[in-house]
Structures are given as structure tokens and as C-alpha cells.
Q: What sequence folds into this?
């Protein structure tokens, strides 16, 4: 897809061409699908692909970074449903033998960090390098948190400052062009993003009504949450990471912080404190008019990129 | 990977670089992984990718065929464990908008045929066309059938005649070169293979000890089953599909018939008859010497291709 619009149109075409889910399940259109599990309860299922030249370039990241990031962004999809990851299937196309060792090292590191076992997958030759991961997860006995549950009056939170990944990509590009060294923290944010699993669980216990991860950019991801929920959003401001610009924070994407709506801010503070987590930042609230997207006195653009390098 | 050896070496590197499964689970190295399900019981997980120029060319198949086949080969992995498919995640890289509609039509047809819902996935731009599918499945209350359970004295069966897909590919290539029309049944075998779900379930109820699907070629797939089980195999002969050669049947692959070992041939006949299925063909037996790979008086080559077009 050359653009976010093209991708959204394609997703709509796919949704129209396939049967709708039965009552109680969610299929296409959230961070993860929620399906009835064979043994009872529900199962979360998600997939995310990274493509060389679209999502990453091997001039800026190494094979281990690709492995880490490919798994971490899938874990983030599970975290955004209020779940924890269980198992992953990893499919690699077009990786030379020299790349496999690094990829596996990065995958193993992320697998250990998130307690998400890589249990299988597929390998193929191919004219381009693609790492496609599918992941399973669970919310245990609790229901999953969808994008669609936010209500007018809910407070909006984000689990950490934004823009670091985008700033990191810019710094790595400058470094590759011989213009100074990228600050390690920014470079790491781009190469080795953190999925916020514990934060997602805390948001659930704090009564979160809707949640999404900041993958494509706060503006576009919040627009999706608001659209799915049928509410408007009014932001006061957003926390901008050190070294990043406000534009990075609003439209950069790939931060993998969680944005969630919840009716009771004190319960949110309490739940995050009880879990030993940094308090999430209150960034605004949900309003009744579903057309509103505002930050301060300005319109909040549904900006962001589906694919960072195209 | 340029070759089966390269792929096997890469899979070994991956297995070495990742933790081993806990007792009672199977991860890398069978048709599907078997993991503990969150809600109790076990879950089958598998992934299979198809790449343009490696597994298919759009001169010989259309987008709907690609969609069908990509899902059917995943269903076949579940069938080969004695399971039935549940849900699929479909990731598409590099498909123009014009292709999506056809892909989705083929996916929807296979989804309906196998009762396997497409519940999510991912879309990306990319310099090559890749369809990567991950699938879940279940064996219900029964244990999965692995490649590794065959014992000396077990009889070997195949669920149908072999070589049709390979002959179909040859006929389609000849047709594309202006040399006559491909016989529809052969063309369909290549374009729209059938996953043998009911046959896999019948094999389970017949006491199958080991099973694999014929994806890469009977010789290489049977070598895998024998190697995993620590037995030798002696074949009398194999059923060759009409229009195919014996070489197609032994090494062509992509037939997606199931090969299984079972100790009691009469029980096998009975189980398939009870399920209203064509009786599987008895093709040989497992022997004690794990080094033996024989068909009649000749050596059985572990032949076959990981990737049909490379």
C-alpha cells in the first residue's frame, strides 16, 4: 500500500470480502482479534510484518534489531488489548544465512524479555527481506480492551513521552550521513522499542474503556480510537520525549506507548502505583461530538505514517 | 534459502538460538507446534508463506488461486497433526490494490471450504509479493499426531495418488509457452490443492502413530517422518496420479496428501470407510534399521524442492 488511505481502503475491501465474526468475537479492525479459545475463554491473535526498505533499512539497524523489533511490535498489539503474550510464529523471507543468526539473537532477546515463546514459523527464499510474525495472547479471565469502548467524559492517558522513535530515526539517518553521532537513548528507542505489557495490564485494572498502541502516530492512532468509540477527543497537550519535537510526538509513531481512556483518573494513578509503574500522563478527554479532534486550540491532525520509509 | 539443505541448516540455527519447549509441548520441527492452550487443552500453531517468483508466478495462477493455496497449505499443516483448523491471520506484502480483491476471494473460498476464519493480519507495501499466513487448530480432546511416533512394523499409507500438482505445473508452463492446453484437473491440483482434514481425523481414529503432509515431495517428507521416528522405510510402490509420472509422485511435492504410519491396516480401512472417505493406499512399512530408505529394490531418494521455482 503506498499510503495509509490505500491501506485503510484495502482493509475495508478485505473486511467486506470475508464473513463477519460471531457475537462476542472481534476480528479485523482492532490491535488484535479476540476469538473463542478451543479450551474455553478467549484468545488474542495478531500479526505484524516488517519489510526491508519499507519499515527498516539495514544501514540503520542490524539483524538483531530487526528480530527484536518485529517481535516487540507484535507484543505491543497484545498489550494494547490488555493482554499478555503467549506464543509467536516467525516467518522470514529473503534472509541470507549470515542474517539468520542475528535475527534469531534479537528474537530470543525479545522472547525472553516478554515471556513470549517463538514456537514455529516458516523460512523462504525471496527477492526482498520480510519478517512476518503472528502472535497469540490472553487476557486471562478478564475481557479484552477494545478501541471502541471510550465514552464522553473519559480521561485520556498515555503511558510515556512520545516522539523518541521518530527522533531516533532522524538522528540515525544523520549519523549515517556523517553528521554526528545519534544519542544512544534515541537510537535505542527506534531500534529496540519497548512493548508496554505491564502498563496495559495496569490500565485494565484501572478500568480502561478503550486502548490502542502508538504505532503509526498519536494523531492517527487516537483518531482510530475515537472513530471506533464514536467520541471526539480534546487534548490539552502531550508529553514530548527529550530530544524529540512536538511534531515527532504527535505524528512520528513507533513509540509503542499505550493510549487509553478511563473514567476515573484516581483509580488510574492507584493502579499504576500499585503495579510499581511510572504514572501515565493525562493528555485530555473524550467528548460527545464525534467529529472533534483538537489539541489546545488547534485541530489534531490524523497524521502519521503506515510505513516510515515510503 | 537457496536449497533444502540451506533451509534445514537455518532451521537448526534457529532451534539452537531459541529455548527448548517445556515437557508436553512441541515447537519447531513438526508440521505445526503444539502448545498448552490458555483455557486448557492444547493448541496447534503453524505458519506458511508463499512468495512470488519462488512459490508461484502470476503468469500461471491468478490472485484468487494464490489466496486459496496460501490458506490451504496452512490448513494442511493442521491436518497433518490430526487437527482441524480454527483461525487464520493473513499478512500480505506488496500487493497492488487490483490484487487484493482476488486474493480475498480465494481466501474467502478456502476459509469457507475448511471452516477456518480469517480474523486478522497485516498489510504492507513492499518490493515483492508475499502472502504469509499463520493458523491455529485443535485436536479436541485427542493428542496431536507427530512425525516422530512411527514404530518398526507400522504400515505406511498415503491418502491419495501423488504427482498431480507437479504434472499440473509442467502442463501450465507448457500452456504458457503455447504448447497446448493444461488438463483442467492437473491445473486445479497445482492451483487449488486440497487439504485433507477429514482424512487426518480418520487417521487419528485409526490409531496413526506418525503423520506428515506431502508438501515438498514424498521422498523428502517420508525421510523427515522416518528420521524423526528413528525408523527405516521400505515402500512397495506409490499410487501415481493420472497424467503424472512416477518421478512427479516421488519428488514433485505440493500434493498435500497425508502420509501416515499405523500399526493396524484393518483399523485404518474401517476408520476411513466409517468416515465415508476413499480408502488410503498402503505404500509400504516401517523397519527397524533407521538408515533404510527403499522403494522396491531401489533407494528412495530424499528428493523434493523446498521452493518450486528456484
A:
Amino acid at each position: 500500500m503506498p499510503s495509509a488511505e490505500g491501506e485503510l481502503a484495502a482493509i475495508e475491501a478485505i473486511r467486506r470480502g470475508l464473513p463477519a465474526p460471531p457475537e462476542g468475537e472481534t476480528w479485523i479492525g482492532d490491535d488484535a482479534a479476540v476469538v473463542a479459545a478451543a479450551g474455553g475463554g478467549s484468545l488474542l491473535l495478531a500479526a505484524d510484518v516488517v519489510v526491508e526498505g519499507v519499515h527498516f533499512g539495514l544501514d540503520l539497524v542490524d539483524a538483531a534489531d530487526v528480530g527484536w523489533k518485529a517481535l516487540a511490535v507484535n507484543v505491543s498489539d497484545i498489550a494494547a488489548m490488555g493482554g499478555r503474550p503467549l506464543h509467536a510464529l516467525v516467518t522470514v523471507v529473503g534472509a541470507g544465512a549470515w542474517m539468520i543468526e542475528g535475527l534469531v539473537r534479537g528474537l530470543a532477546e525479545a522472547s525472553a524479555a516478554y515471556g513470549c515463546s517463538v514456537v514455529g514459523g516458516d523460512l523462504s527464499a525471496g527477492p526482498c527481506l520480510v519478517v512476518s510474525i503472528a502472535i497469540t495472547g490472553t487476557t486471562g479471565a478478564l475481557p479484552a480492551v477494545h478501541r471502541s469502548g471510550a465514552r464522553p467524559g473519559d480521561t485520556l492517558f498515555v503511558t510515556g513521552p512520545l516522539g523518541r522513535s521518530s527522533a531516533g530515526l532522524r538522528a540515525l539517518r544523520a549519523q549515517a550521513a556523517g553528521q554526528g553521532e545519534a544519542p544512544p537513548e534515541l537510537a535505542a528507542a527506534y531500534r529496540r522499542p519497548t512493548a508496554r505489557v505491564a502498563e496495559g495490564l495496569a490500565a485494565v485494572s484501572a478500568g480502561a474503556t478503550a486502548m490502542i498502541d502508538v504505532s503509526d502516530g498519536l494523531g492517527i492512532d487516537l483518531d482510530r480510537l475515537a472513530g471506533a468509540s464514536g467520541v471526539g477527543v480534546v487534548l490539552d497537550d502531550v508529553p514530548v520525549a527529550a530530544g524529540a519535537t512536538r511534531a515527532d510526538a504527535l505524528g512520528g509513531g513507533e513509540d509503542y506507548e499505550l493510549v487509553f481512556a478511563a473514567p476515573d483518573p484516581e483509580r488510574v494513578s492507584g493502579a499504576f502505583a500499585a503495579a510499581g509503574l511510572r504514572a501515565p500522563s493525562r493528555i485530555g478527554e473524550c467528548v460527545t461530538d464525534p467529529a472533534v479532534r483538537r489539541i489546545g486550540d488547534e485541530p489534531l491532525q490524523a497524521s502519521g505514517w503506515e510505513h516510515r520509509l515510503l
Remarks:
- Chain A touches chain B through 73 residues (CB under 8 Å).
- Confidence is low (pLDDT under 50) at residues 306-310 of chain A.
- Chain A has two domains: 31-138, 147-299.
